[in-house]
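Hey,
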Amino acid sequence: ETETVAATVYPNPTDGTRFRVRVPGAERADLTLFDVQGRNQPIATRALEADLVEVVPATHLGGRSLPPARR
């Protein structure tokens, strides 16, 4: 079952290398990132808090490749 919920994305605007998504009250969220041309963009995610996730696109949102995310 899919449920649509409100999410907060910040910083907005982003520098294109990483951003955070907060989904209040969510125990789990599946995130998909699409560029302005509708293409699915690969991402890495890291939980920071129960309802806060850091998202790191595999490609800079401005089109440049990024180095691997640090752990």
